[in-house]
Specification:
Length: about 160
């Protein structure tokens, strides 16, 4: 929420600065000799420019807020997937007690695949395959476009140390 507040403050400050600049730069009446005709140009053009600049700034702030909102929603999806994977890995009886941690990276673009990184240690290759199958089983209904990055270590000494 803090980035949104700072963005709004910066937008308001920029709007007031722009209005102050327009006010200072407004054309001043010059003293002319009475014989010279008064120019027929109006000062309404500067008002239109100021209005368009303020509207452009408001649109830019709106776009920035929308982008921030989409990014936050994508991060929330990643956190939900990561917690779901962790829950399933902890609740599986064949994997109980093994330090396996899933980490989910969700890119901003929906076209890019979600990356699920598995780290930890398992006692055998069969347990590693069990972990990979469980992650695929949980992730497939939630996300159709994902990659699994396997950083699991197989350490046969784990069973002896646990006993």
């Amino acid at each position: 929420m803090k980035p949104l507040q700072s963005l709004m403050r910066a937008g308001l400050a920029a709007t007031f600065m722009l209005l102050a600049v327009v006010e200072v730069a407004w054309p001043q009446a010059t003293t002319r000799a009475p014989s010279s005709p008064a120019p027929s140009e109006g000062v309404g053009g500067y008002g239109v420019v100021a209005f368009l600049l303020v509207m452009g700034l408001i649109i830019a702030v709106g776009v920035a807020v929308r982008i921030y909102d989409v990014k936050r929603k994508r991060e929330d999806e990643g956190i939900a997937l990561q917690s779901r994977l962790s829950d399933h890995l902890l609740s599986d009886p064949s994997l109980a007690g093994f330090p396996v941690t899933p980490t989910v990276y969700v890119p901003f673009s929906r076209r890019s695949p979600i990356t699920i990184t598995l780290t930890g240690t398992v006692p055998s290759g069969a347990r590693r395959d069990t972990v990979l199958q469980l992650v695929k089983l949980v992730a497939m209904p939630l996300e159709s476009h994902y990659e699994i990055e396997d950083r699991l270590l197989v350490d046969p000494q784990m069973i002896r140390r646990a006993a």
